[in-house]
Amino acid sequence: MGPPVFDTLARPQAPWALRLLPPFPAIAQRILALTAQEDVSVGQVAELIKMDPPFAAEILRFANSALFGARREIASLSQAIVLMGTDRVTAMATCVAMQKMVRHTVGNPALRKIWHHSLVTALVSEQIARSARRLQDVAYTAGLLHNLGTLGLMAAYPAEYTRMLQVTNEFGFDLLNTERALFEIDHCAAGAYLAQDWDFPDELAAAIATHHDSPVKGTFSLDTVVQVSWRLADTLGYAAFSSDREWQFDELVSYVPNTRTSWLGESREVAKEHIHTIIAASPI
Asked: Scanning 83, 86, 209, 253, which has the fewest C-beta atoms within 10 Å of its C-beta?
């Protein structure tokens, strides 16, 4: 069997809507490059993060939040990396970097809404992967970064994109079509372009590109996990945008295997309470 079609596609020219995007922060780029190598030690990652004190402080803040449930204060970067895992540190590095790029140009309520939606999607993706005992190493990262294109478009055109979101939500317009009409690219394609440009794994770029596709029963892939997870985040009360249709919690859970063994398999109310407890203590 040949390679996936996505892998064979040539890297596209930069879309005009992303040409004004500020440079990706150097510390995040170096972390991504380092953690992509084999046999990287915790000490190497910690030493790199120490080179950027504000970013190091962000990592420690996350490690000490309810997201990770540490039983005692995490005082060192090495402890934080062991607790969080290099995959999560990589995901957090990218997300924190993107948020810094848009923090001073987008109203905090809008940014916080997108962050919470992405975080819930990451937690649900991780739970689905853990229940299926597959894709645990990338599911959280894919869930957290699935709206990478949204942050990219926000950073490039903060006022225009924020206003577009407001109008789209107010009048129930189709988000992807509206993005294409205004920016000649939607946030799925924009996120896939950024993922490729920043040398993310192909499977992660593909999951970002296809996350608005409808999930298909009987399949289990990273694409499916993300497609189900962000919609589950919506049903749990953490929608970032107007949805294309109103999905039901039980309907979405039926798309993925073995969720009976997790908090997703109990009930929407149990899952909602579980997520709310974590989000309430989120450092953002």
From this structure: 83
